[in-house]
Specification:
With 249 residues, the protein is of the alpha/beta class. It has a single domain, classed as TIM Barrel (Alpha-Beta Barrel). The protein is built from twelve helices and eight strands. An eight-stranded parallel beta barrel has the order 1-2-3-4-5-6-7-8, surrounded by five helices. Helix 1 packs parallel to helix 12. The structure holds 1,3-dihydroxyacetonephosphate (13P). 1,3-dihydroxyacetonephosphate binds next to strand 8.
Length: 249
């Protein structure tokens, strides 16, 4: 079973509009000959309309939304609004949303359900903090995140999702998981999908690695049998490094 290879850029709260347009232009023009890899970008939502106009073959998503269709939720953007403005995917469960904005497992589950209901692709992020890795309980921690907010989906629904494993201690720190650490967790995630949905579905779901993945280490990480690509932060802000990562399979 061949799974989709995906390289996704999470731009987080970076760039001004002109930089974002330039970045998309550069990614589009330098990726024309790239085949067999889906490129996704998650710009700040405010830039969505402009990015959607020039995205060409790129998949465009948003980093956050509120899981209601409309209403009195000052400052939030809805799932229908992001769809209306050109997003086809959303990041859900990113550790920065969980930690800085105190998103609960319940809210994350509601976001998953809202995205599924509106046929928006989910990139579901999971991953353990340093103290959990240090006491070697990362497996049960990550499995519980998946059970709490993702594994309630039906067979058909889960197959529309991508999972991103992002150990928090590796995000923005320059400290990447070793190939062994990445493969160990990715194969564990696939075994849990097998436990809940069977081997065929497990083999069809792309599992991305995130956490200081860059142009120098992507090749090694992508050799892992169960690593199907990357969710890239810092190194996605420059077209050259992003495209180099996309060419690392
Ligand atoms: P860095 O690649 O900057 O470590 O960020 C990873 C990340 O959080 C992507 O969502």
């Amino acid at each position: 079973m061949t799974r989709k290879k995906i390289v996704a850029g999470n731009w987080k709260m970076n760039l001004q509009l002109n930089d974002a347009i330039q970045l998309i232009d550069d990614i589009v023009s330098n990726s024309k000959d790239l085949s067999g890899v889906e490129l996704m970008v998650f710009p700040p939502a405010l830039f969505l309309l402009e990015i959607a106009k020039i995205k060409n073959e790129l998949t465009v998503g948003v980093q956050n939304f509120y899981p209601k269709e409309s209403g009195a939720f000052t400052g939030e953007i809805s799932i229908t609004q992001i769809k209306n403005c050109g997003a086809s995917h959303v990041l859900i469960g990113h550790s920065e949303r969980r930690e800085i904005f105190h998103e609960s497992e319940e809210l994350i589950k509601q976001k998953v359900d809202a995205a599924i209901l509106h046929e928006i692709g989910v990139v579901f992020c999971c991953g353990e903090p340093l103290h959990i890795r240090e006491n070697e309980s990362q497996s049960s921690y990550v499995k519980q995140q998946l059970i709490d907010s993702l594994f309630h989906l039906s067979d058909a629904e889960i197959q529309t999702c991508v999972i991103a494993y992002e150990p928090i201690w590796a995000i923005g720190t320059g400290r990447t998981a070793t190939v062994d650490q990445a493969e160990e967790m990715h194969s564990a995630i696939r075994s849990w999908i097998t436990e809940f949905y069977g081997i065929e579905i497990a083999n069809s779901i792309s599992i991305l690695y995130g956490g200081s993945c860059n142009a120098s280490n992507a090749k090694e990480l992508f050799t892992c049998q169960n690593v199907d690509g990357g969710l890239i932060g810092g190194a996605s802000l420059q077209a050259e490094s992003f495209i180099t990562i996309a060419r690392s399979f």
